[in-house]
Amino acid sequence: MDTFKKAVEKHKQMILDAERHIWNNPETGFREWKTHAYLKEKYEALGYTLHEAGNVPGFYTDIDTGRPGPKILVFGELDGLLIPNHPECDKETGAVHACGHNAQCAALLGLAAALREEGVLDGLCGSVRLCAVPAEEGIELEYRRELKKAGVIKFLSGKAEFISRGYLDDCDIAFMVHTTSGDPGRLSCGLGNNGVIVKNFVFKGKAAHAGGSPHNGINALYAANVGLSAVNALRETFLDYETIRFHPIITEGGASVNAIPDRVALESYVRGKTIEALNRENKKINRALAGGAASLGASLFVSDSCGYFPNKNDLNLREAARAAMLKTTDPEKVNIYNSYSTGSTDMGDVSSLMPTIHPYATGSKGSAHSNNYYIADPVSACVMSAEFQLRLICELLSDDASEAKKITDAFTPVFKNSREYVDFLSTMDHEFEAVAYNEDGSITINV
Q: Both 178 and 49 in a single domain?
């Protein structure tokens, strides 16, 4: 057993215990205080000093080799989802880790412990930053917008928020291993993920008695239905290679069955491979929904924010990851594939600033974000994942960090620094009334 495998295996039980504890205490984004407290205790017991975010959950900590060189940033995500019909969800909140973030956090803790073991940092230069980050899942948008209005956060996702706080400023390369389904022991990495515009809509009509005088009302629910039908008619205009997705939910649809709904609220994403495609198709979607409102005489308030930047895995970093994968598991269980996922992650925001990859380790079963998801093989999802991450750090920082330097030298960022990134994201925030009724009887649609 080599140094790296031995360093992780020594802490196997702690890793597995952490996976179960976090699974049994799920929390949604910017509410992960129990998970934060649990991990804080574990990291401090390992001798780490934490830089805590303070008014939101999450922290980072550094371990230095004692020799100058690049800083490698490794993430673990704290948050769960809301799936109230999952058999193991929190019965009060409906929260559950149906995307495997509990396994990520357990693997990151195992990596933290392994990095403390004797001999692990020998021959390496530079440093490693371990970051427990909140709020990757883009849910409970109204709650997050309230936090934003109160000045608690600037952005709706955890990594964007941490970037805005300067927590990534001195980092050079980043990665994070996500849990996925499949045979145990598999490691994989593709090309990247869709970006996201996060959307809230409020249709406003006029209440009236639904049976006695519906002619006196303006049905906001019907306005929403017409608008959504118009968006569905647009779907064939979305270019396949831009992988556009729009999937709304109605979060408020009326209060009483015998009253015409005068307020209907929707949440949705627009997903796509590039910022250009996102902006173009988002305007078309806003126009279609505004048309639905106008057809019924309703108003429409739109709130748009950049949820995730498109994620592009750095190809040179992916090759270093392939080498680390081949040292971690059997060659036939390594899959480097050349396609994009239509799902999304705020690792895309990180990838706009530095070389980044978002590989996967198997260990779950069921469909992600569904009520049949669970961790079936925590050794694969957590222990193997931690070993792979340790080996990747070694690939990057050994031999005077020659591999890391080659990767950073070849990389061209989308944004020069976090300030430029923050300024751009701020231009993506829009709140506006999409329909105006003019005195001359005409209607103006603003998108």
A: yes
